[in-house]
Amino acid sequence: MTMEVRGWIDGDESGREMLSRLLTERPYLHIPPFQKFPLRVGNVVELVGPSPCAKTHILMQAAIDCILPKHYGGLGHLVLFIDLDCRFDILRLSQMLRNRIFQANKNQSNDEELFVECMRRFLYIRCYDTLEFLATLKTLHYQLQKERQAQGIGVNFLMIDSIGAFHWVDRASTSLHLGVDNRKGLSLQNVSVTVVQEIKKLVLVHPMLVIAAKATILGNRYAANEVKWNLKRPFSPDSAASSVTNKVHQLMYREYMPSIWQSFVTLRILIQASDDHISTENNHNKSVYLSEWLMPPLSFGDSFIVKDAGVFCVS
């Protein structure tokens, strides 16, 4: 370890060599259906949308892209999935992974050994309440160190599904506690501050991409339908159209997470189902989902469907 530190201190490299090294160690990540906007380790991505709108499927797709070996088009790293909704379907993940392996093998026999190797890289933790979630975050550093030593690779993705799972329960219970015994430690603000602080500490030691799903609070049916219409129509730079879209977002998308979490998020994507369907090669009708970048506000959106092998963009 001493020799490694001394070598790092004494090392000398040009700017081009440094950029080349960083792009090799921390490459841009293209996650379907968001290939148009590359992600990087250190980003905090929030997927917001009503349930169901394929948020968890997108997380599964990203997880599979990470745990697959590089010669299968993956990253060959670990994924840490924290399930706060307690509804994660491990059978669905294994089905998607098997289909990806099957396709990569050019429809030859399934590689069971590769499947087991990939599933070892998928680290799953389920939390049933906020206190368990906080305790998990505080002990993750040691767990990830143990996994790195055991498997020889680190974690690239931290996934949380969903970050607002306990918000309303905590909001009701903490208001009662504060009125009875003044337990300030249970306030929503303090909980959110602790969550953000612990994730920041974790990312400093274990650089990774953070992806958190979050259910939205929807407005009336008119507002939701108008959002769908705006997402399906071609994007226009016209200021009047932009004003209408922003107004609809205000009606449809209500933020409820504390400000400390909102400021922690670096990228936010709105996802929802449309009324459209596409017929696949097996004559199965698949629902079309729509996504739009809220932060940063980009002038394009994506349409995608969910198939057995994962998430696929449609034109």
UniProtKB/TrEMBL annotation:
CDD domains, per the entry: XRCC2
Entry-linked InterPro entries: P-loop_NTPase, RecA_ATP-bd, XRCC2
Domain RecA family profile: 4-217
Family annotation (Gene3D superfamilies): P-loop containing nucleotide triphosphate hydrolases
Signal peptide: none
PANTHER family attached to this UniProt entry: DNA REPAIR PROTEIN XRCC2 (PTHR46644)
Protein name: RecA family profile 1 domain-containing protein
